[in-house]
Amino acid sequence: MRALTSVFLTCFLIFSCQSEQNKGDQEQLKAIEAYKSAYDANKNSINGSKVVNAVVEYAEKNPTDATRINELFNEAIAISLEQSNAAQASGLLNTLIKEYPDNDRETRLAQLTRMLLEMKNQEAAASLCLASLQAFPNSTSLQELKTQINPQDPDIKSRLDRLSTTMFNDSLNEYSVDIATSFVDGCEAYVLANPTAKDAVDYLHQAGQTARSIRTFRKAISLYDWIYSKYPSDPRAGQALFLEAFTYDNELKEVDVARQLYEQFIDKFPKDELADDAKFLLKNLGKSDDEILQELGTENQ
Predict the structure, then answer these.
(1) What burial class does residue 141 get, using C-beta atoms within 10 Å of its C-beta: 0-12 exposed, 13-18 middle, 19+ buried?
(2) By three-state DSSP, how is residue 175 classified?
(3) If DSSP codes are grouped into helix, strand and coil, which group holds residue 45?
(4) Residues with Cβ < 8 Å from 32, sequence gap 6 or more?
(5) What distance separates the 2 farthest-apart alpha carbons in the chain?
(6) pLDDT in tens, 199-240
(7) What count of Cα atoms within 13 Å lies in the side-chain half-sphere of residue 274?
(8) What is the rounded distance in angstroms from the CA atom of residue 251 to the CA atom of residue 247?
(9) Of 130, 234, 248, 258, which one has the greatest count of Cβ atoms within 10 A?
(10) Residue 18: pLDDT over 80
C-alpha cells in the first residue's frame, strides 16, 4: 500500500508540475496575443518591441515548442521589418536558423542574405551567400544572390582562407579589426549554413579566439557557448565552457556569471586538464593580483 501511495504521490506531483508549466505557457501566449492586438491597433515601435520581447521570452522558456516558435518568430520578424528595424529582424532570423536548422534552412538563409544586402552589409552577405551555397549548391535563389553580390572569392572555404591569412598585420604586429571581424562573421556564416559539417567546431573555435584577440568579448562568449551547447560531445566543448567562464571573469569582470560557469565546468568536466585551473580561479574570483600573491605567500610559509 505504501508503495502504491508513493507512486500515486509521485505521479500527482509530476502532473501538477506539468499543469503549472502548461498554465504558465498559456499565460505567456495570452500575453503575446494581447501585445499583438495592441500593436495592430497602434503600430508604433513600443508596441512592436513588446511583441518581439514576449516572443523571445517564450522561445527561451519553451525551446521544444518548435512549430509555435517558428510561427511566432515569423510574426516578430515581420513586425521588425514593418518598423524598419532590419538589425532586429536579421537577429531573430539568425536565431531561428541556428536553433531550428532543419526547418526550411535554405529559404531562410536566402532571406537572411537579402536582409544583409538591404542593410548594406556586403561582406557579411557575401560570406553567408557562399556558405549557404556550400550547403545548397543547386539553390536558384542563392545562385541569383551570388550573381548580385559578385563576391571576390569562388567559395566560402577560399574566402575564409584569404581572411585568416590577411587579418594579422605582421609589420604593425596587430590585427586588422575589419578583416578579423569579417573572418569571425564568415566562420559564423559557415556553421549557420552547415551545422553538421565535420569542421564546424574548428571554425567556431578559430572565430572565438579571433574575437578575443580583437577584444569583442561578447562575441567570443557567444561563439564558445555555441560550441558547448550545440556540440557537447566534441572534445573542445569543455574548453569552450572554461573559456566562456574565463572571459566573464578576466575580461568583463562579471564575477557572478563567471562563478556559475566555473562551477558548471568543474561539475561537468572534473577530470579535464583545465579543472585545477578552474578551481584556482573560482577560489580567487574578485581578488586582485596582490591579494592572490599574498595568500600564496602565506600558504607557502
Answers:
(1) middle
(2) strand
(3) helix
(4) 51, 54, 55, 58, 72
(5) 81
(6) 999 999 999 999 999 999 999 999 999 999 999 999 999 999
(7) 23
(8) 5
(9) 130
(10) no
